[in-house]
Write a structure and sequence with these properties.
The complex is a heterodimer of chains A (123) and B (657). Chain A is an alpha/beta fold and 123 residues long. Helix content of chain A is 47%, strand content 22%. Chain A has helices at residues 11-23, 35-45, 64-74, 89-98, 110-122, and strands spanning 3-7, 27-32, 49-53, 80-85, 102-106. Chain B has 657 residues and is an alpha+beta fold. The chains are: A alpha/beta (123), B alpha+beta (657).
Chain lengths: 123, 657
Amino acid sequence: MARVMIVDDALFMRQMLIKILVGEGHEICAEASNAKEAVEKYKQFKPDFVTMDIVMPMMEELDGIGAVREIIKIDPKAKVLIVSAMGQQSLVVEAIRAGAKDFVSKPVQSTRLIEVIKNILSS
Amino acid sequence: MQDGYRELFLSEAQEYLNNISNCLVKIEEDPSDLESLNEVFRCIHTLKGMSATMGYEKLAGLSHQMEDLLDELRSQKKKLTLEISDALFASVDILERLVEDIRLSRESKVDIAPCLEDLKRLLTADQPAEGVMPKEKKPERAALPELEEQALEFSDPDIKKIKEAKSRGLNSFKIRVTLVRDCVMKEARAFLVISNLKRRGEIIKAVPQVEDIKEGRFELAFTLVLVSKESREIIANDLLNISDIEKAIVEVVDVAGKTAAAAPQGAPSYIKKIQSMRIPVERLDKIMNLMGELTIAKIRLLQIMQSFKLEPLEEVGFTIDHLTSALQDEIIQTRLLPVAYILDAFPRVVRDLSKKQNKEVDLEMTGSEIELDRVALDEIGDLLVHLVRNAIDHGIESPEERKAKGKNLHGKLAIKVSRQKGQIFIEVSDDGKGVDFSAVRKKALEKGLISGEEAAALDEKRVLDLISLPGFSTARVVSDISGRGVGLDVVKSKIESLGGRLDFETKPEVGSRFILTLPLTLAIIKAMLVRVEGEILAVPLMNIRETIKINEVELKFLQSFEVIRVRDEVIPVIRLNRELDIPVFVSSEQYSDDRLSVVIIEYGKKALGLVVSQVLGEQDIVVKPLGSFVKRTKGIAGATILGDGRVALILDTMSLR
């Protein structure tokens, strides 16, 4: 079981993800609602993996992709999972380039999310 | 000519023609795009064969001539010039007209002779001998796309690379990756696979080519050859840890350029398994209709079940409930088609329109894999063309004007399709000059459509209302392209009649954006059932913001309208019984609750409260269109049959405002 940080600007999405992840026995060690907070909390909590909403409001020149980049800079082995709406392929590609490990699309299906996380944790 | 095959011929021919148009656009952009060239060649070739079989001589003749010219291009004996591409486009137009004549079973008056002459002349005309293709591209890449699945062939340089890798102690792997069928964002998924593999070594070959894979131009599978120091297990494990991959086969390639663990070579199979079949649309409609009846019967059954409380009956009932829901989902799926079906036509549309206007326009399309109900697709194609026209004609400036403004010479036009919560969003945006509010204001004042006061407070919503009025055009010159014919008013009312919505945003000098919102399917919708006196009405859930209960005293009068305050918003209220002339109904049951139920519906950014007698609850309803004699009844969009056999009218929220 892993320690997870959830990054999403929508409280609703965070709660949904938390419900799925806690149901799988993971521990939510941090939540962040913007990119800057995500980077800070990553440093502080060192989670085993991060779910990152790719579209978030700019925060001090940092967006979702910027946050992925920063986190990878802090920890090249960081496991970041992108959560994105369909049709944002270019953003997802950008995030993969920045070092994200995988992605799931909204609406998030719990079975898929669980499987993806299992894959990420075992890689 | 065999009549039974005519339908099949027509539908296939149309597909080929669309494909040809698209590939021609691609080739024109990038003459070295051999794959598209081969695709055009293959389509024309097949079309020729089909037409000849059916005895359509003109079609066969013209496609034969096109085929000859394309063959010259393909074998690099000829270079693609503007003249040739124009001739090819012109020929495709004629092919389309010929097919249309066949569809309408009328004698074709289309004269193909001039076009044939053109093609012949271009075929025999001399051209400088040098080819357009980059030298390193091998003619072997000209393999037909279907060959994608076949074992990839190693050229000499490939074999050399593999040998060299081996001498350095590196392994070469042939990797075939198959994505799951319902994979979303194929491009991104493929990109993830490729970037993961690149971390392990070097990709020396790919079918289709790496760029094509990254752009999602493959069916479900692609093949790569990777040179890496890692073992087969590590590579395979890497791939297995990526989600949405159905299957990844990693085989070691030996020096001879053959895979060592070669799959047993069975006899080649000549007969492909049938993967999909064509079903006439009417049949699908019938199935949908029956499904609707079944749903209604099911709801009745469930209601009867509740009143009898028989255990075995309940068991069967719940199974039936579950099965019908699953069946309904499946049937809805069969009615869905990817938006690509209509979007595929747009590269051509944009090319033609922008050429006519002497503008440079780059088209960007995303989300074409998203699926939409066939009926809606049929309806929105023309509307999108109109919006695109509008953008090219009114939005995007001429290259000179753009240059003066310091913008990129090429205007950008984007069509984005996305899906959220059972709704489809289609966005058409441009980076042109935007709608000139002051021009709209002036024109509207001139025409007496708004008062001076209103003119001062003009917002986007109101501007859209204004510019979508019939006959309202601020274009100074009415062009061949827009400013006549279908107006925004038609787009708007059509979308609304489909249960959708048209929104509009604009910023001067930055561009405009039209957003169409549509329900996923038009036949079965979620609705809130409400009672108004003795009638039951269904309000589409998509339009509802919330339902509230208020005391009669909370209704206030503002001028002559009733309004309520909900949180900080003042919302106009109408009483549905008065609005729809529903007679007072004295129920045998008396409701002790004398508060009023209000359903708040939403259109655009505005809201409207509907006072109803009682809110009954949510339900899936099957939309039955009204007969023509009651069509256009104010406030009513259709009807549905409830579980107990009663008819409920479906409220048309759009016509109430």
